[in-house]
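Subject: Interface between my chains keeps coming out wrong

I've been trying for a while to get a sensible model of this assembly. When I model each chain on its own everything looks fine, but I need the whole thing in one frame so I can look at the contacts. Pasting all components below, labels as-is. Any help appreciated, I'm running out of ideas.
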Amino acid sequence: MKWLHFTLIACLVLALTACGAGKSGSTSEADNPSGSSGSSGASDSSKSSDTSASRGKTELVFWSPFSGPDGPFMKKIVDAYNEQSDSYQIKFQIQPNGDYYKLLDNAFGTKKNMPDLMIMHLDSIPTYVRKDLLQPMDDLAAKAGITKEDYVDAAVSYATIDGKWWGIPLDIHPLIMYYNKDLFAAAGIEHPPTNREEFLEAAKKLTDPSNGQWGYVMPTLWPQQFIFPSLLYQQGVDLVDADGNPALNSPEAVEALAFMKSLIFEHKVSPENVAQDGEVKLFLQGKNAIQFNGPWMKDQWDKAGINYGVAPIPVFFDQPGVFGGSHTFVVPKEQTDAVKLEGIGDFLKYVAGHSLDWAESGQAVASKQVLASPEFQALTQQQTEVAKEFDYVHFAPPIEDWGSIVGELWTQINLTLLGKAEPQAALDEAQKKALQAIEAKK
Amino acid sequence: MRGSWRSKLTSSLFVLPYFVCFALFLLYPLASGIVLSFQDYDMLGSREFIGLENYKNIFTPGTLIHDLFVRGLSGTFKFVIYSVPFLVIVGLALALLVNALSNRVQGFYRTIFFMPYAISATVMATIWMRVFDTDTGFLNILLDKMGKTGPHIGWLNDTPWVWIALVFCTIWWTVGFNMIIFINGLNEVPEELYEAARLDGANAWHRLIHITLPSIRSISTVVLIMTIIASFNVFAQPFLMTRGGPGYETTVLLMNIFAVAYGQHQGGAASAMAIVLGLIMMVVSTVIYRLLSGRRG
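Reply #2:
Try treating it as a single job with all components included. I did that and got this:
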């Protein structure tokens, strides 16, 4: 009898565990620095573009995480390519943004349903290169007539590891400043702030707590992953030291965190206890004058009909510097079919010349040819402002599984900005946990 | 002989569809999970057996896996302790309430209370984040209108409010299930018992304490155990609404298992963590089951 009870309960536990997993499986992960759906939880099922007229053509499966409003822009490029190509047919597949790397890992792990070409975030490339899962793009690029000089340097040099080129960039999406033009006009501010003094002055003028209006609402969670590193680059340091070891509690890092905290508790230009996406919700309601976020937010502002402006992030310390992400094209190592590789090269060459459609989504593209084109220069609402930051954009340190090494950092920044921790102690703890995570990999 | 052989075959065939599903979706994943927990698996193809190393790490203070496990488990335990009593008591209260209504409106209210259970986690989180947001949330705006002054309450990032918010939305989301089971239990109680009690002059409170509760005792045990297990598996509410914050206050174990598997690329360690969690759930459930059913004699 005892055993029967035990077995029954065991089955019950397992059954409910399975149900629980099923229920939570469909949620999206907004912590993933993806830049395609921003804060809204996109969880579309995969869609594929039509495969008509593909007879006689070599089919290439292309995976992307563009399940947000950016998906149709890429589809337009793919459709136009398929239209004009006699030899290749790109089968464009959109995977849910939040689950993208889970699906990629499963494909890599099982070697099943592997795409021929895929989008990967630039800062994920080091992880997958070290695990020997990607293919160098040098030969493919050379055959297609693609050179490194065709693209913005920052993205190319980051994707060059051990002398080989692993990812061909599509865009670069750095942190940028959005500001509410109506609130600026009402406060009599002529131009967006460019340095710390102007920023503080403007933020204070724009703050009116009695009216629920704030100069700069400080996020305590996402997108701190973009904001905090930017403040370090502006002091000439990185989250790692010259040897690639985590340096999360450097004096500069403490200084940056203390500055952010002072905006809430000393200058009081931000409310306390800001919840996730609180700054976005207030911006949408016209109660937050300035916010730093990624270029992918454009679609939300446009839909809400806000009168907003875009400008580079102000220089708070000694030099300009900003954190960014980048979408790149990579090819899995298993892909050795010469015809397919040639097709991939052909498609990427085409994209380099025709990525203006991608820029329409609000992104600034990495192809110099498109950046210099008059059509791109005419996109003055956001894209050209974003491109201004390309000269000083930085990416996450090129270290395997960097995301899990800095997991504690975001937790500690959250505690500090909620007024529950002090910058130095918080960053010491983050540093300790980062070293522990590295130790666990050995 | 022959007849019994045939009847065995026939009955086996009836069980077969269930058994196939059971094996495919429970037995096989469970078995491979156990195997995985003895391996170092980077989730990308390379795996090797490392014996009990993963389990050893869980119980070695100072390692990443240990810290993530302990922190996550404490968050999960807090959630279980805060949420289970409410989920059971509110479920029972709603069941009594609905059962006391006239037959015509019973179905209507049953549906109303059960409906949130059918909503997906993402939708539930979106709704309640709008209610609980610090500056634009319905609740704080309501408090402002009622004359509350001072900084807004951080319903999603300040203790103890964050637990109140999480437990409240969990009740709203899942209590309908418990209610339905309780209603079934209540319908099983023989009407004669109540009639006899009424003749003896028992009031409503006495009827509840002396007839209803003892009669639904076994079904209450089932509800309690299922609620505990479901609460141990909490993931979506903190993952979507608080991101585990403030700090790691509401970071639950499943979130950390997820982080070890897909962030740290240590599938074996994540499996070991999940299996230890499963064992803890079994022990807790068994103990509670025996405590409750043992007293009956």
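Reply #3:
Confirming on my end. The mean pLDDT of chain B is 91.
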